[in-house]
Amino acid sequence: MTETVSVIGAGLAGCEAAWQLAKFGHSVTLYEMKPKKFSPAHRSKNFAELVCSNSLKARRLGSAAGMLKEEMRLFGSLILECGEKFSVEAGGALAVDRELFSAQVTRRVCECEKIKVVNKEIVDIPEGKVIIATGPLTSEPLSEKISDLIGKNQLYFYDAAAPIVLADSIDMSKAFFGSRYNRGGADYINCPMDEKEYENFYNQLVEGDCARLHECDKLKFYEGCMPIEEMARRGRDTIRFGPLKPVGIFHPKTGEKYYAVLQLRKENAEGTMYNMVGFQTNLKFGEQKRIFSLIPGLENAEFLRYGVMHRNTFINSPALLDSHLRLKKFPNVRFAGQITGVEGYMESAASGMVAGRFLADELAKNEAGLVLPETTMIGALIRYITKSNSNDFQPMGANMGLVPGLEVKIKDKKQRYETLARRGLLDLAFALKN
Q: What was the pLDDT predicted at 217?
């Protein structure tokens, strides 16, 4: 006898969760409100619809996206298999024919004997074991039920996140550690600007090309969450009295004071990632790279995540979820996909995949269960969303800054990343066998 479990949402995460459970012999009821009801961004009746780009990012092993794919291959990922079957030429990226891809995922899921598909909108959380994988546009009735379950202040409805850069890529010959406005310890990296550097940066910022927002993404910005470019357009000195305020900041060795200062704050306990304080933005990603690289110290910065401002329902996962993606207070309920704070197609699929595997182990009374090595990209992502120490938790995609460094320093980035990826794959292969 096996217990039937419920998976809500037939997006990338929900399909992977259902597939993993079925693969281990468990019966699944997969609920999907399409085609009876569509979110503002969805159009196709098929599962695993790719709303924006048709790219699943890089294939090469020496990249975060490629590392993630190879780890998913070891799990037997349905999404990866279907993506490769209907790939289109895209250089070093895995891009897909989105219609054929979604149709194939739908076909495979619907033909699986262990998966029962029910097309209806879920407005109450079902009894028993549940995986909620309803994505960034979770319907309002279900959002209200989730909010009632976890607490109204633990459910967020849009991203307003600043860019995050790799610590090792910041030029510390120009930047320096210091306190925030002369209060507390030297916990911030400061990137100083003189008047000429500030004028150049400001002029480029106010002329920068912003991303077009979908109707469902349009936000009424409030003062505490103003895009840096919108703030700058209010006046030449507005951001100099805001995020770039130089008050109380001086060079610890020379005592020099500055016209404007960008501060970067630790994003993780290891100090491998730093976020640009107050730099939430709607600039296009290429524009962020171009304009923010004008700031002294960031000329060669590696951006692990660009700033975003868009509609995105997600929960405060570090406060709510355990390492197996269960609600700490209600362990029968798991979350997976973008609603947990992973960002990206394959990241969403990967979280659904491991949520399904975790639940399969639990149903099989496998007390030890799978332990994801933190050296893997999947393990590092799950660790971030469940253990992030940031006071302002924001979604995150796969990036090498999440993975613990190597004991031996490797200067060449390509070689270093490939070594990190191979280490993670070996550790994952061992974990899956035991």
A: 45
Closest by alpha carbon to 175, among 186, 184, 164? Answer: 186
Please check the confidence at residue 367 and state whether its pLDDT lies above 80: no
The position carrying tokens 């355990």 is 322
Structure tokens at 236: 């030449």
Phi, psi (deg, nearest 5) at residue 394: -135, 150
8 Å CB contact between 93 and 59: yes
Cα 401 from chain centre: 13
Nearest CA to 378 among 424, 415, 416?
A: 424
> What span, in angstroms and rounded, lies between the C-alpha atoms of 28 and 309?
35
Q: What angle do CA 53, 135, 86 make, to 5 degrees?
A: 40
Domains and CATH numbers, the chain: 5-159+313-433 (3.50.50.60), 164-306 (2.40.30)
From residue 135, give the alpha-carbon distance in Å to each of 42, 143, 233, 327, 339.
12, 11, 33, 17, 5
According to DSSP, residue 155 is labeled: E
Q: Given this model, what pLDDT does residue 271 score? A: 86
Local structure of residue 87 (DSSP, 8 states):
E
Q: Could you give the 3-state DSSP secondary structure of residue 275? A: strand
Output the pLDDT for position 1.
Answer: 45
> Is there a contact between 352 and 345 (Cβ–Cβ < 8 Å)?
no
Amino acid (one-letter) located at 250: F
311: region left, alpha or beta (phi > 0 left; psi from -120 to 50 alpha): beta
Indicate if the alpha-carbon torsion angle 382, 103, 25, 66 is positive or negative.
negative
Q: Work out the pLDDT band at 91, boundaries 50, 70, 90.
A: confident
In angstroms, the CA 417 to CA 406 distance is: 10
pLDDT of residue 223: 43
